[in-house]
Structure formats: structure tokens, C-alpha cells
# Entry
Amino acid sequence: MKVLGIETSCDETAAAIVTDTGEILADVVLSQIEIHQPFGGIVPEVAARAHLEFADRVVKDAMDQAGLNFQDLDAVAVTGGPGLIGGVIVGVMTAKAIAMAHNLPFIAVNHLEGHALTARLTNQTAFPYLLLLVSGGHTQLLAVKGVGDFTRLGTTLDDAVGEAFDKSAKILGLGYPGGPKIEAEAKFGDPKRFDLPRPLRGKPGCNFSFSGLKAAVKRKVDALPPGDLLDQDVKDMAASFQAAATDVIGERTLKALKEFRSLCPDGKSLVIAGGVAANTALRTRLQKIATQEGFELVAPPLNLCTDNGAMIAWAGLEHFKLNQTSDLNFAPRPRWPLDPNAPKAAGAGVKA
Ligand code: KG4
Ligand code: ZN
# Structure
């Protein structure tokens, strides 16, 4: 079976073709980073227009890369939400048009489920497992028990961790996207120089909060002697911020592993996904925690950790194998929680 997957929910226009045996026949990702760089962050309206401009070409490139015609496909999957709604609409309309024109089954996929199931494409990870999803738009801990079967153990009450990296980088004048820049500067900085908070540490539950951390970065930077920030100030703050973010995620993940163990005693894997999972300091910490708790740490290759079409094609395939397809009148969903029974996290907004 071959499924085309289309992803347009954030700032990547992506399409891929994946088989039910886990072969990636094509994987095309067009990043909009350069388009948004002048604004210092993603502008939803600009992103939607760019998706509209590039979606057809990206799909064509994927089909050419795989050497396939639309008739060779078994289904079309697309991110149906959650995400920036303008982009999601573009992707959904593109996928519906292909499905209609070529009489193919249509599958609307939850973007978060795409991230959540990637480890099964790359590492054949068996259910159940604990997922830590850390990206620019999401920070969640989820027990993944099966296709469409999730228990949310934690989410962010305010900013996503990637957002906190990006905003702190902006305060330090490091540009966008900030995560990789903070990591590079942090290598040469003193993580103890600035005393930053560890929000929610020791508090019940596994939720996250990052807006206070970002605000503390701003306060400490503002309190430095007037004038341009010194190179060493930037390095020390980057290191201090990264240490705080790593501490918080480490503590919350350790707690979630313990909760997960009582929920799913058979679970043996901790899976990480999302752009922030590229961070080496964070990976090292998570590896330590996983080993200590007797779990295997599964980290899909970086290009499949960040937004891509292959994860959508694969999640579509997992549903297709269970005969689960969507109606062509599916309406794009700006919000789409993986665990509809999770208690509403105050202030969680679209990140819930
Ligand atoms: O998953 P992703 O590519 O896109 C979505 O947000 O969906 O994640 C992007 C986020 C950005 O906030 C970026 O700054 C962050 O991942 N990021 C990193 C690193 N590389 C990317 N954060 C920390 N350390 C990194 N090395
Ligand atoms: Zn994503």
C-alpha cells in the first residue's frame, strides 16, 4: 500500500509517500523559515499564502521523486488540524481535490498523532509508549496506547518550549529560529551565572509552564548595565536558559514515566518528537532518565522529528489499515486534542 501524506499546519509545506512496510518513497519539505525570518516568528497569514503558492509543487515533487502517478496511490492523508487554520485549509483542500479527482480514500490526520506514531515508522516501536512532544507549537506528555488511543499526562499551560527558546533568543538578539542558536551559544556559557526559575517544579501533575521563564530572561537582561549585550552575557544567558528548560522537562518527564508505568505496566519506551528534541543537552538528560527508569529512549531521525509529510502519510496508513477513513466533508480543525477526555488545562489555549 502507498499513501501520500500532506502537511501544511505550520511553516513547512511538506508531502511524502510512504508504504505500509515503512518505506519512505519520497519526502519533500519546503521550509518557510526565510519567509518568516524578517518578522522574527511565524506570521499565520503569510504562512497560509505561502502554502497556497507551494502546495501543488511540493506534491508534484514528491510524486516525481517516488516515480508514481496518482492512480498508483491507495489513499491520500493530510493534516486536518490542529494548527494554523489558514495553512490547514490549504492542505485539506489540496488532499480532497486529489482524492476526488482520482477516486482515492481520504484520511484527515491529527498532526499530533503524526508526531506520536513516527516512532512506529522509524523504529517499529510497539504500543504502549510514553511520548514527549516538544516543538514550537506543542509541549505534551502522552501515553500512546494505540492508534487513536491516547492519555494526556501533561501539556503546557502557556507557551510551548520551542516558543520559549525562540522568544528568549529574540531577547538576546540571536534571530529566528532561536533553538539552534541558543544551543550553539550555550556551549560557551556559564549555566549558573543567571538564576532562572524552574516553573512548576515539584508541583503535582505533569503540566508545563514556560512564560515565566521567558519573562525572567527578559528581566535579567534588562537588569544588566545599559548598552549592548556583551558576547559573554549572551552565552551565559543562553546556557542558563537551556539548563532551566532541560531541568523542567527532565523533572516533568521523570514524573510522567512513573505515572505511565502504573497506567501501562507493559510500556518500555520513551519516545521523543518535535524540533526541540534536536537539543543535545535535553537528549542527554532524557537518556539518563530513561536508563535510570529502565526505559529505552527512542529518538526518530531529526528530519522526521520536525514537521514532515511522512509522519502524516504513516499515521494515515495506520488508520487506513484499520479501515478508518474520513468523509470528504471533513472540516479543518484549529483545535483537535488527542485525548478528548483530558481535563482542560487552564490557559492552555490551542496547545491543549
Ligand atoms: O517541530 P518543529 O520543527 O516545528 C513546530 O513547531 O511544529 O519545532 C520547531 C521548534 C522551534 O521553536 C525551534 O527553535 C526549536 O524547535 N528547535 C530547537 C532546536 N532546534 C529546533 N530548540 C532547542 N534546541 C535545538 N537544537
Ligand atoms: Zn509539529
